[in-house]
Design goal:
Blueprint: E1 2-8, H1 10-14, H2 18-27, E2 31-38, H3 42-48, H4 58-65, E3 70-77, H5 80-88, H6 101-105, E4 114-116, H7 120-130
Antiparallel strand pairs: 1-3, 1-4, 2-3
Length: about 140
């Protein structure tokens, strides 16, 4: 089994999409083994996105991610990372495939409703950033 981090970003929470997005995750066979709502500080957002420090979008994405509450989850499945990334769709919602979360719900490239780990290495960092082992269901 593989784990990945999923985030419903502030725009998704504000628009009342939590239930719909979770339902779509579960229909895709992704098992939620940890879940909580958080509101990141600017410093926490910077720490989470530190891999992007110095890139042109770093300040705006960290501002956005601390602009409201997020729902963070640990998803588990045999191919959790690939399954969730396929369901999310391309970062730019205009390029995302039909039926993906971003194509269906995003309003711009930054306010694209969801985040997901892009590799086993980033998943390990991202899951540990928000959850300790006591918070993750052992199946």
């Amino acid at each position: 089994m593989e784990r990945t981090l999923a985030i419903i970003k502030p725009d998704g929470v504000k628009r009342g999409l939590i239930g719909e997005l979770i339902s779509r995750l579960e229909r895709e066979g992704l098992i939620i083994v940890a879940l909580k709502m958080i509101w990141m500080t600017k410093e926490q957002a910077k720490g989470f996105y530190k891999v992007h420090a110095g890139k042109p979008f770093y300040e705006s994405v960290t501002d956005f991610m601390c602009s409201g509450p997020c729902v963070v989850m640990v998803l588990e499945a045999k191919r959790a990372i690939n399954t969730y990334r396929k369901l999310m769709g391309a970062t730019d919602y205009k390029e995302a495939a039909e039926g993906t979360l971003r194509r269906d719900y995003a309003t711009d490239i930054e306010k694209n409703v969801v985040h997901g780990s892009d590799s086993p290495q980033s998943a390990a960092f991202e899951v540990a950033y928000f959850f300790n082992e006591l918070e993750i269901l052992k199946r």
